[in-house]
Each structure stands twice: as C-alpha cells, then as structure tokens.
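Sanity check

After download, print the first record. It should look like this:
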Amino acid sequence: MSKKTKLIKKTSKSFLITGFILIVLSSIILYFYTRNLLQNEIEESLYSTEARVVFAIENNKIQFSLPPVTEIKKVNKLKRKILKDTVIYDASQDEMELFRELTTFKNINGENYQITVRNLVVESENILLGIVISNFAIFLISFIFLYYLNTSRNLKLWKPFFKNLEQMKQFSLTSKKPIQLIESDVLEFSELKMQIETLTQKVQTDYENLKQFTEDVSHEMQTPLAIIQAKIDNIINAHEINDKQFKQITSIQKDIQRLKQLNKRITILTKIDNNQYINVSSIHLTHLINDKIDSYKGLNINNISCNSTEVLMVSMDSYLADILINNLFSNAIKYSRKKDKILINTTKNSLTISNIGDKALVDPEKLFNRFYRESNKNYATGLGLAIVKKICDLYQFKISYQFKANHHIFSIEF
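Expected structure tokens:
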C-alpha cells in the first residue's frame, strides 16, 4: 500500500510544484522575449546611426570615424551587409567589450564606402538580467504570499470535513447517541454530512435490531432446551427403559448439551463483536489458573500442573478472563489422554499450555476459525478456540500455536 499523505499537505505540495514550474518557465520566457526585444532595439539604433552617416556622406558634411562606435572607410568593391556580435577593445573602458556590429557597403557620390557602426551589448545584458531577476523575485514573493494564503484558506474551508472525520472515527455502534457533525456552507460537505447522519442512524438501528434478535433467539432457545432436558429426565426416572432406549436418550442428552454450549458460545462471540465487555480490571491470572486446576481436581482430573516463575497480571474483563482459561483448559483436556500431563507455564507477561499429541495438525492455520474441527471424534462445537482468539484480538494479546516434540503448545503474550 502506498504511503498516505494528508489532504492539505498534498494540495500544498501540488501548489508548490505548480508555482515553482510557473516561476521558472515565466522567467525563461521573459528572458528570451526581453533579450530579443533589446536586440531589436540595438539593431534599430545601429540602422539609425548608419542612416545618419550615409546622409552625412551624401551631403558632404563632416564625417569622421569614432572607433569603436563608428568607422567609415573607402573600399574598392561593395559587399553584403554584415550584422553580428563582436568582441573588440574599447579604449574608453580599457577592456574587451561585447558589441553588436552592423557593417554596410554603400556607393555614395560615385565612391564605395564601408560603414561600420557598433553598440555596446553589455549594457543591454545588464538590463536584461535585472528584469529577469526582478521578475523572479516578484513572482517568488507573490507565490509565497499566495501559498500561505491558500493554505490558510484551505484549512478554514476543510475544517468542517476534518471535524466530522474525527467524529466518525469516534463513532461507536454500542453508543446510542447519534453522531454529532458540523454543518458547512459548502454544498458538497453539507450533503456529505446529511448522508453520513442518515447512514449511521440506519446502521445503529440495524445493529440494535440484530443485537435484539440474537439475544431473543439465545433466550428463547434456553427454555425449550430446558423443557426437553426435564422431559428426558422424567422419562429416565419414571419409566423402565431398556439398554437400547437408554443409549438413544443418552445420545439426545449429549446433543442437548452441545446445543446449549453452542448457544452460549455464539452469544459470547456476538457480545465480544459488539464490544459489550467493557468492565476492564486487573486480573491475577496466576490465581485464576490455580483455582481452575483445583476445580478440575474436584472432577477427578489430576493431570494438570502449573509452573509459575512470576505473577501474571493482565488488564481485561474478569468474565472473559475466566472464559479464556476455561477454553484453553477444556481444549487441552479434550485432546489428551487421561493420564497424559498437561503443562502450564506462566511468566510475568506470557502463558503457555501444552498437551501431548500424536501428530501435528493438518491445517494449523485454520485452528482459530469458527466451527473448525480437526476431527469429528469429539462433540466439540468448534468455537472454543475461536473465542480464545477473539478475546486475544480484543485486548491485543498475541496468541500462537506450534507442535513441538509431540506436544501441542499454545502461547499467549500479554
């Protein structure tokens, strides 16, 4: 992805580049235009001087050469006129100077003359340079003034947009307050504000409806499941059933339990997605892990041991902390043989839980996907590790999995 640039910075950069190009181009054009103009003026002056000299010769007036400005001499034959730049010694300046030189050949009163008139170019070059520098300076000062004026104007013009953008960043679906946007006298910004307000109101309404639907479905499912469970218990207690019927009823009970777990976990995932767990506190995770190990011992599960080098404290919702540890424990227990050790290690900012496994997972990259199960041997919902990943993402904990030395190892860095 390309690097993002702020709007004002981008427009200012375009303005700077465009302005700089315009200054340079205008200076170049002005230089050549003025240079050509001055050169025409010099040549016009030369022709004028040459005409005066010819007029003086024709009328037998006093004529003399004044090198290097004017030189008149008789020649044997006429040639074509020559107009060129030449560098000659100027005795008045005691240095070599650049002159524009016009040499013409005229037959006046029956005699051939070579008339050479010159004009200093250095003076016109200085004028030219002065004009270009002045132009450049005026453009530069004007450009700097326009740049700051334009930037200031843009900031004021775009202020409603930036303010509304900040409001949108802070907008939350969980908040029932409507988004508060600033009105603008710019038509497009005003229309954008109206569309955003309409859209956010619709999204909030849809979100509330979806949330209510999820909660209603979750609640309504609990009652029929409890009734089914009670009726099955009555059948078992009030009637004699054979082994085949017992197996069938036991299978139904397992399915009911799985439906209950599925319903509970989908509800948890929905609430995490909706950011409904907002009570963050400092959790003594080492104590929580040890309490869980004691609880499992009460269920005759004694193969879990914990090694804590330091106290592990994390900031999170206490209910989610309990779910996080429960799901990691139940996953390790579910995929371990009864006597295989489940090892837990904690440090000041990490948790590792490992259990023995026969082989590595076929698709470890799918391990945290919803409803993913490596096999159908267990009646798993496929949501336990998805919830673990969702909780880690919520608090920006880094979870990883690896299979090493016949151990499935889950690690969380807090």
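If your output differs, re-run the checksum step. Summary of this record's structure: The longest helix spans residues 7-58.
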